[in-house]
What does this fold into?
Amino acid sequence: MSKSSATTRGLSHVALVCSDMYETVKFWEEIGVPLVKMEELPGGGQHSFHDMGNGAMLSYMTFQGAPAAAPGIASQHLDVRKDGAKTAIASMNHVAMDVPKERFDEMVGKLRALGHKVFTINHGSDKPFDKEPDAKTWIRSMYFRDPDNIAFEIASLMRELGTKEDLAPQVKNAKGERVDYVPVLLRKTREAAE
Ligand SMILES: [Fe+2]
It folds into this structure.
C-alpha cells in the first residue's frame, strides 16, 4: 500500500516451530525463499531466517523435545474443507506472503510442479473458485502446507485497501455484539469531508 499511515514498517519476521530444519530449509529454497541466517540455540536447537522478499523474513526454530503438533489447536486442521480453519486463541493460524498479481498464476504453477497440493481462492469474487479473478476480487490467494503441515498462503492484492466498503462491517466484541467504533481511516475520511 503506497499511502500507509502505519507507524511501523512492515514485517520483520514470523517465527514458527518445525520438526526437521533440513526438510524445512530445502522446502523453502526450492520455492524461492532462501536461507539467509542460521543460529544455534542453547539445548541443541536451531533458529533460521529465510528471505521472503521486501525486507520480510520467515523464521523457524527447532527445540529438542518440542511438544508434538496440535492440529486444530496450535495450527490449522489437516483438512480445512472438512474440519474448518478454526485454531486456538493466540495460535498461529497461517502465514501469507505477497507476490505481484502478474506473477500469481506462475507461482501456482511452480508450487504444483514441485509436487505441492495448492488450492486457490479469489476473495470477494462472485465465483471465488474460478481460474480468473473478477472486478470484485480484492485479493487472490493460493494455499499450501510446509513439511510440518503449517498452513501457508501466497497472495496478490488486486487493489489498495482501506475504502469505505472495506471498513463497512462493524467490529464485534467477544460476545459477538457490534461495537460503535469508527476505524481511524474512516475518521480521517470524515474529517476531510468536513
Ligand atoms: Fe490469509
User: Anything to note?
Assistant: The domain at 68-159 is CATH 3.10.180 (2,3-Dihydroxybiphenyl 1,2-Dioxygenase; domain 1). Strands lie at 13-17, 35-40, 46-53, 56-61, 95-98, 119-123, 139-145, 151-157. The chain has three domains: 9-65, 68-159, 161-194. The pocket of fe (ii) ion is lined by residues 94, 96, 153 (CB under 6 Å).
